[in-house]
């Protein structure tokens, strides 16, 4: 074992520069799985990466006897190729005996030495010392002359090492598949990540610049979320259609909302239209030109889309379980297959809210399984994949009608609804929803606008780095203290006017987020949950009632370093769902 480590240290001229302790506590350490997460999903720790793919090499680029090691070739993909280049690695490992993994960057003669890279572009090695219970980090001495060396070493020591430490303790050491989730991201085919990344940059360059300046004025929603989300979804649909060999003759987007997805797909040469029960202001803007968007209440029991071979449901809410029924009926009417792209969000069954939750499953997973059963009952071949969109409800269900159906759609529907009292679709009453809206500040303001504001303020305060230690020893940025006038300057007059009319102003809104912020007269800072207290955190020591967490931890959701407290100590839920 020591000989293997010494061979690599000598051959690559490595030196030990840092170590991080792994509290063993007589438990198995998942070092192999932690490293594999980084190798296969580097984007979870490096925000400049889109992912990694396997590559091939015709020859070994070094003169080293590797018979006692395992090797693989990987390419770490830059999220933006206009700024950063990809990095190709020869990865040498021995997980069985020595517990080592070495990353050797493969040089590209076509890239200049002055170019920027999205990942570490010098030789580095990790070794798990089983006796000392620590991960050692080695780097190549020869690369110290590289001007980016110190910055990349800092990232390895301050970011990657603590993340590996966390994974070593939290991942199941018996799980050779090292899955971070039940459904992995962009897995429809092997090079999906690379193709998606390139197409996303192309579409982003066109549609972000085209829409972002006037988006808020036209929609009163966060442009960062909605524009990027629909660009991402359009990329996914385009690539999936090409891979499946089923590009649409015409599509219909049911519950199309702002219509941007329909506009992008039309603009990329795909014929189709969108339907929604309420017209949006942006529909009539100059940007949409000839995009065909129709204001109409959808009746799934009676509507048939005879001219369409793809039905899209993008966060289609109460329509989601009906899409297989609609597509099945359309297939029979047209005597040709009609397929489905569905990204479900809110939980509905055929006529009401879906309130089922199975044991050991999130409500979202239970709902996805419910929809999967509907797809299969209507004879659709189902593909499940996870998208890269700014939403926790990010699974796409693709239903392909491979054989022409013969069974009556209403007979299938009735068989699925044997335990329900009605089979009638109930559309939302927009007037009734408006009457129910609360006058409470945080409930009255559009939710996307609220999130946009608190994230904008949080990011601004975090621009000044003042680090504290988290519960696990890693760094946590507490940020600056700023005057309220500086916070107000982050938003334009239209946004401030909307906030003032609906809840009294920016200060009133932020004061409703005591979990995140502390006000000291006209100054605001980020709450330190270790030393600060607020009304939400106060619990009497004599209170013997069981405390049940019901609200999400906003630090866990929105702070780049997460929550400063361990989940057991925090009074809020550490749950992305």
From TrEMBL:
Organism domain of life: Eukaryota
Compartments reported by the entry: Cytoplasm
The protein, known as: tRNA (uracil-O(2)-)-methyltransferase
Keyword tRNA processing listed: yes
GO molecular function: tRNA(Ser) (uridine(44)-2'-O-)-methyltransferase activity; zinc ion binding
Organism: Brachionus calyciflorus
Job of this protein: Adenosyl-L-methionine (AdoMet)-dependent tRNA (uracil-O(2)-)-methyltransferase. Probable adenosyl-L-methionine (AdoMet)-dependent tRNA (uracil-O(2)-)-methyltransferase.
Lineage, broadest ranks: Eukaryota, Metazoa, Spiralia, Gnathifera, Rotifera
Pfam families to which the protein is assigned, alphabetical: AdoMet_MTase (PF07757)
């Amino acid at each position: 074992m020591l000989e293997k480590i010494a061979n690599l240290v000598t051959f690559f001229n490595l030196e030990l520069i840092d170590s991080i302790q792994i509290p063993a506590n007589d438990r198995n350490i998942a070092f192999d799985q932690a490293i594999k997460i980084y190798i296969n999903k580097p984007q979870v720790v490096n925000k400049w990466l889109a992912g990694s793919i396997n590559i091939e090499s015709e020859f070994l680029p070094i003169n080293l006897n590797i018979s006692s090691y395992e090797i693989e070739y990987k390419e770490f993909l830059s999220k933006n190729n206009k700024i950063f280049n990809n990095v190709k690695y020869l990865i040498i490992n021995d997980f069985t005996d020595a517990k080592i993994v070495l990353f050797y960057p493969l040089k590209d003669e076509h890239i200049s030495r002055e170019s920027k890279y999205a990942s570490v572009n010098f030789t580095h090695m990790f070794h798990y010392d089983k006796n000392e219970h620590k991960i050692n980090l080695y780097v190549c001495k020869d690369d110290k002359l590289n001007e980016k060396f110190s910055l990349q070493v800092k990232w390895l020591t301050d970011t990657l090492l603590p993340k590996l430490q966390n994974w070593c303790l939290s991942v199941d050491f018996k799980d050779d598949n090292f899955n971070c989730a039940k459904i992995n991201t962009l897995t429809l085919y092997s090079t999906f990540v690379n193709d998606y990344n390139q197409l996303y940059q192309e579409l982003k360059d066109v549609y972000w610049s085209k829409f972002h300046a006037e988006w808020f004025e036209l929609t009163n929603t966060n442009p960062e979320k909605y524009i990027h989300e629909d660009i991402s979804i359009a990329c996914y649909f385009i690539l999936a259609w090409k891979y499946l060999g089923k590009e649409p003759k015409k599509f219909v987007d049911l519950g199309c909302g702002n219509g941007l997805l329909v506009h992008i797909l039309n603009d990329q040469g795909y014929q189709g239209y969108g339907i929604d029960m309420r017209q949006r202001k942006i529909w009539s803007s100059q940007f949409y030109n000839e995009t065909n968007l129709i204001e109409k209440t959808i009746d799934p029991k009676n509507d048939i889309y005879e001219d369409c071979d793809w039905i899209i449901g993008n966060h289609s809410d109460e329509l989601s379980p009906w899409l297989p029924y609609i597509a099945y009926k359309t297939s029979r009417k047209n005597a040709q297959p009609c397929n489905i792209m569905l990204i479900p969000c809110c939980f509905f069954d055929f006529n009401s809210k879906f309130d089922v939750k199975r044991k050991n499953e999130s409500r979202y997973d239970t709902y996805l399984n419910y929809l999967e059963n509907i797809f299969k009952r209507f004879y659709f071949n189902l593909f499940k994949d996870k998208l890269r969109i700014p939403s926790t409800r990010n699974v796409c269900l693709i239903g392909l009608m491979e054989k022409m159906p013969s069974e009556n759609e209403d007979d299938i529907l009735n068989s699925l609804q044997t335990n329900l009292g009605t089979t009638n679709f109930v559309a939302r009453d927009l007037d009734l929803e408006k009457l129910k809206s609360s006058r409470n500040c945080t409930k009255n303001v559009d939710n996307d606008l609220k999130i946009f504001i608190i994230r904008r303020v949080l990011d601004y305060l975090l621009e000044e780095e003042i680090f504290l230690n988290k519960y696990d020893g890693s760094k946590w940025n507490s940020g600056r203290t700023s005057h309220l006038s500086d916070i107000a300057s982050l938003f334009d007059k239209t946004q401030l006017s909307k906030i003032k009319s609906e809840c009294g102003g920016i200060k009133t809104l932020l004061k409703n987020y005591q979990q995140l912020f502390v006000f000291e007269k006209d100054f605001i800072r980020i709450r330190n949950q270790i030393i600060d207290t607020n009304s939400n955190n106060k619990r009497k020591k004599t209170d013997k009632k069981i405390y049940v967490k019901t609200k999400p931890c906003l630090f866990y959701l929105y702070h780049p370093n997460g929550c400063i407290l361990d989940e057991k100590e925090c009074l809020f839920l550490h749950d992305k769902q």
